[in-house]
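Here comes a specimen:
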Amino acid sequence: MPTPEPRLAAPAVASLDPRPNLLGLTREEMTAALAPLGEPAYRARQLWDAIHLRFVLDFAGMTELSRPLRAALAERFRITLPAVADRHASRDGTTKYLFRLEDGATIEAVDIPD
């Protein structure tokens, strides 16, 4: 049975979006970013958990946050994964990925099945 493809969609021109990418922030930076919105520190923890533990990459899906807060976050921030520049599946089941970061740099990753 083939392994399902990971969901790695990302806009190819993500760097043209001036909003800060929350995916690149530390937990402390995320807390500081929410402070101007008047949000308490626990909101940053909720946001961090939604992104990094539950893999929610759309503010609308963060239902533990109020609708007004989700709207404010969507106006001010984005959550953007690196773009998949290349993908190569090998006969042994491994898949190599080349990701392009917003600054143009590339990184490689390999998915090795169990």
